[in-house]
Amino acid sequence: MKKVKLHNPFKPQVINEKKLREHLALERTKLANERTLLAYIRASLYLLIAGIALLQIKEYPRVHWVGYVSLFVCVLFILIGVWRYIALERKLKNLLLPDPPEEEENKS
Fold it and tell me: Mean of the pLDDT values across residues 2-17?
């Protein structure tokens, strides 16, 4: 098994290559989760702007319902995005918890 030395100016350490791959995979997953949350927020802001703009149109009162739907979907996007972000963060936190110590079976 190959050992990999991580360069950290504050705390140099030698880590197992398998653990390094797992650590980097978890970090990529965290970053992807953050990007997904930001995409939900961006889409929600677009829907908010569209809804407000549609409600400001006075010449066509029949399109106001589309504005209200847009505002509702905007709130829905934010709630779903935050819920999914928190759910995945909890799953990742459970993966990072250390394994419980194994009890020795042959205690004398």
Answer: 64
